[in-house]
Amino acid sequence: MRIPIDPALAKELEAKLDSTTELITPESPKYEASLSRWSDGAVKRAGAVAYPTTFDGVSALVKFASQHSLDLAVKGGGHSTGGTSSTTGGLVIDLSRMRRVAIDTEKKLITAQGGALWEDVDDAAIEHGLATVGGTVNHTGVGGLTLGGGFGWLSGMYGMVIDNVVAAKVVVPDGRILTVSDTENSDLFWAIRGAGHNFGVTVEFTYRAYEQTTPVYFGFLTYTPDKLTAIVEALNRRFDNSDPRGGAMCVFAQPPGAPSPVVNAVVFYNGNEKSAKEYFSELFDLEPLNIAAGEMPYNQVNRQLNPLARPGGRKSLKVATLASPVRPEYAVTIFEMLMEQLKEEPDMASTFISMEFYDLAKISSIPPDATSCANRGAYRPGTIGLSWTDPAKDDAFRAWGRKIQAQCIEWIKQSDKLPSPGQALQYANYAEPDDVLNDPFGVNKQKLAELKAKYDPQCIFDKANARIEVPN
Ligand SMILES: Cc1cc2nc3c(=O)[nH]c(=O)nc-3n(C[C@H](O)[C@H](O)[C@H](O)COP(=O)(O)OP(=O)(O)OC[C@H]3O[C@@H](n4cnc5c(N)ncnc54)[C@H](O)[C@@H]3O)c2cc1C
């Protein structure tokens, strides 16, 4: 059983910490701010919040938490909506003072500390004409996003984020700082690429980088809902016969002040405007109501969705996976469900639902057991991004999101696109701990349980969206 940290224990911990680690307790004027998360619904009243700045500082905290069986949470970018980076009464290790990024231009490698945000990585890399696969909203943390798999605009070309991690440094429950790679602690290296939230604090990631000296094309094409079927058909055709440089999202959202949602195609192409317009010609031919798109440096792309993903209010992410090619009638059903819900519940007006389209060849070329992330295949990940303000509606609105989540699984079960044995259907980073996850680790479940027993037998790291249990 995990225990809270009381004032006496906090004092004992403080005495053990180096001078660069700050420990905030409820008496501190900084306490309320230290609890803040992207979603107000993920705020929990911690017993103490520690801000380490060094690997040794993290190690001392983890060791203390293990020795005292403390309830422990690790915060990277703070975007978990299910509260997995928060604790009620326990100890938070907040990595936000560990955001350093270094670039090795010769080896084309990016090294980022475990508390870095994607903007830190994108901005540092582009200064050297480099880029890697990263989050599409650049204030998300590299920590949580990488450890669960990671999709981004460059996924068509280079795969998932984890496919580009070449090494990492992980603080495991007994306080050791382990280097992991294909040649060192390779079992833990395998485990952290998909199920990483369950194994330790990753204090450093090393990513493969790629030349990105030319601008890319990115933008929003907005349509009336009657175009939805044609849009989905165009996206299916485009991505069934694809070029890995392209990516798109089909997003249902209600513009501020509008009476009902509209359909947006968010488009990305790693090339110039002319090639992008040829690539997405079918979408342009569908006469969007509005086009806001253009060429920009790669590091600016992951800023463009930030205005749609502002912090504050109560939020919940739910994964909605559809088989590829996406059946347009399913997209229409989901759109209608959203339209009805927003009509009945105006407090949910900022809610969005998106379907993601990348060229799947690269992602699927890696077998589901090559890393611990088993959800690779002919599926389109999607997000139900619930947003509201009234805490009394937390359960009801989450239940509505889970209804769509369950419906998507049902559609796959009824289709001829059943997952192969061991293949997982849902991406754990787009979910919350109590969601209907269709086993996100698939074929890797048993091996992960064995590695959990090896590295974290006391289950100190117990707050992932998809938890790994120690076998009896
Ligand atoms: C607005 C928004 C946009 C998103 N866009 C994308 C996207 O483009 N692609 C994508 O794949 N996913 C995306 N996601 C999902 C995202 O991958 C998860 O929400 C992820 O958990 C966020 O990580 P974080 O570090 O910001 O969150 P946190 O809340 O800090 O952490 C989430 C989990 O990761 C753990 N964790 C964080 N850092 C570390 C670390 N260094 N070591 C060990 N454990 C750690 C925490 O303990 C917690 O369990 C998005 C989410 C949001 C809210």
TrEMBL record:
Endpoints of the signal sequence: none
The name this protein goes by in its record: FAD-binding PCMH-type domain-containing protein
Domain of life: Eukaryota
A Pfam family of this chain: FAD_binding_4
Keywords for this protein: FAD, Flavoprotein, Oxidoreductase
Key word Flavoprotein present: yes
Cofactor: FAD
Lineage, opening ranks: Eukaryota, Fungi, Dikarya, Ascomycota, Pezizomycotina
Family as reported in the entry's similarity comment: Belongs to the oxygen-dependent FAD-linked oxidoreductase family.
InterPro entries linked: FAD-bd_PCMH (IPR016166), FAD-bd_PCMH-like_sf (IPR036318), FAD-bd_PCMH_sub1 (IPR016167), FAD-bd_PCMH_sub2 (IPR016169), FAD-linked_Oxidoreductase (IPR050416), Oxid_FAD_bind_N (IPR006094)
Xref: PROSITE patterns: FAD_PCMH (PS51387)
Ranges of residues in domain FAD-binding PCMH-type: 41-212
